[in-house]
Design goal:
Length: 223
């Protein structure tokens, strides 16, 4: 079952997740900071993070493409970029244990946001919803997200739903000033009757949820 309506253009986001060998994580991050400008010369990077809580030795990066032809052209150019292949890909390939990618669209009611300042932390929340797509759970899910936004303790960056990968998956990216600020806000939200009611309605359609705390890399446009 498809995930349903999306924004009315061809723009999509490729979400890439790499599991890095624990002994190589520090070296991998250093190479990203040193050479990733070679990759961003080819297409737009939305953000690049490494995990701090909820999962270890993982990196997340999100790329924006105008359409699938654009992605194909970028992949072809990268394959022919000797600097990128020689200085980065050939070096980091042995450091990577596993790779996973998804194609996702922003939900129609969300625009990609930015933090109010640099220096905070990001939370990547993955919801596996029941089959049926937004026609089934979209309104309840949107109400739950909006209830959290309205508390004011956190800032929404983006809501993505999958087109390739595991379907009926929704990723929500939040920004907070610090982990402690996020924790205090969550405690307050749990006592907010509006949040409790919205979450109770949305959770009827939920299969599973995973939360990961992310730290932005130097090369990340979202910091």
């Amino acid at each position: 079952l498809a995930t349903g309506p999306r924004q009315n253009n061809g723009i999509f986001y490729e979400i890439r997740t790499y599991d890095i060998k624990p002994a190589k994580m520090k070296e991998f991050l250093e190479l990203v900071n040193k050479h990733f400008h070679l990759r961003t010369a080819h297409s737009e990077l939305v953000g690049f993070w490494y995990t701090d809580l909820g999962a270890l030795n993982k990196v997340f990066h999100i790329w924006k493409y105008d359409n699938f032809a654009h992605r194909t052209a970028v992949q072809r150019a990268l394959a022919n970029d000797k600097d990128w292949q020689g200085k980065f890909i050939s070096v980091v390939r042995p450091m990577i244990e596993k790779q996973h990618n998804e194609v996702a669209y922003l939900v129609p009611w969300c625009q990609l946001g930015k933090p109010t300042k640099e220096g905070g932390v990001y939370e990547w929340v993955t919801f596996q919803m029941k089959p049926g797509g937004p026609a089934l759970w979209g309104e309840a899910f949107q109400a739950s997200v909006n209830a959290h936004i309205n508390t004011g303790y956190t800032r929404l960056i983006g809501v993505f739903h999958t087109e390739y990968g595991l379907l009926n998956t929704v990723h929500v990216l939040w920004w907070n000033e610090s982990p402690d600020h996020r924790a205090a806000g969550r405690h307050s939200a749990h006592e907010d009757a509006r949040v409790v009611a919205a979450v109770r309605n949305s959770v009827r359609f939920l299969e599973s949820q995973q939360n990961v705390l992310l730290i932005p890399m130097q090369c990340s446009p979202l910091k």
